Amino acid sequence: MGIALVAVGLIGISATAFGFAASDSGRRSWGTPNVIRGTTTCTPPAFPGQAVDVILTSMGGGMMGGHAMGLSVSPSTVGSSDVSFVVRNLGSEVHELVILPLASGEPGTRPVGPDDGVRETGSLGEASTACGEGAGEGIPPGSTSWVTLHLNPGRYELICNLPGHYAGGMFAELDVT
User: Are 128 and 139 in contact (CB under 8 A)?
Assistant: First the structure.
């Protein structure tokens, strides 16, 4: 009986910590995934155009010292127009989102430099501020950032370019039709 109650309690905490709730108006309210620090709400404003949800994740440590990182995007295809990226950091480390054109090749194949990052030549913009829009010092765990860009048809690579993060798997493709 006690184990069942603990399991139900953990499921409730997880749903609260990692989910988001839509209000009656349809606006999203993003919660913080760090239950220990308590929950906060960061509500992005209403956006023009299409919204793209980006989730940044990381789990460090473990007995073998492994590090798992990820960047997911939904939807992965949008029409050419204003596109608002709503970026949630559900990981345990600071992250960022940089949007780069991807003229050829596959995502994840950019050369990594001596600074453990890739060149941001041609960057169209970034979301890297805590609970705000545009460039900043990074998105801390549990926070949300956003940026709106006008994107023409083509392929784009969305990346976290903090040292070691791109090489760790933090990239995804966005196709604009």
Answer: yes
